[in-house]
């Protein structure tokens, strides 16, 4: 099964192509510029590296949120266009699930955090059960202090939200707080590809035409309206 995956949920922009358990191509851009400036060129380059074409794909996967409102729209629109052109299915992937999936096996609780700006984070908690990461709480928008409320055990934090509010977490949790190296705070498109592959195997696909970003928090434009 060949999957092209896209992540545009945060500052970085990532594209990957995977075939079963093999990663055929992966590109990442952390320039911080609008993803629309680079994404299609990155997708084209990924096809060149893998010696494949859009119609060779069995499906597409894309991060659907939470994350950057503009970034999510760019990634989802691009993947929906590819799906419409090829007639192939789409899997929408939670950004928090992708972050948790990148954590090495651990007995600690896992807390994935994405910087939601304005002093807030998007967060959810996970735990390894039987060798697989299982979600323990729904995805919500919190103040950092609220996101860690009630954690009374060793916890491994991941994501750019954990990086941004590390001092607050350490003050509140002391020795219970543990952090991964910065490289783990960036969602890898390859992770999105392999999660998408599992969704396809489980027949957990989405209607490409109905796929929309999962924002959690309303955008400022909607609030003003």
CATH architecture of the largest domain: 2-Layer Sandwich
How would a textbook summarize the main sheet? Answer: 6 strands, mixed
The rounded Rg comes to 17 Å
Helix content: 25-40%
- CATH homology-level superfamily of the largest domain: ATPase, nucleotide binding domain
Query: What is the mean pLDDT?
Result: 94
Write the layout of secondary structure elements.
Layout: E1 2-7, E2 13-19, E3 22-29, H1 39-50, E4 59-65, H2 69-86, E5 90-94, H3 95-101, E6 109-117, E7 120-129, E8 132-135, E9 140-142, H4 144-147, E10 155-158, H5 160-164, H6 166-173, E11 177-179, H7 189-201, H8 220-224
Parallel strand pairs: 1-4, 4-5, 6-10, 10-11
Antiparallel strand pairs: 1-2, 2-3, 6-7, 7-8, 7-9
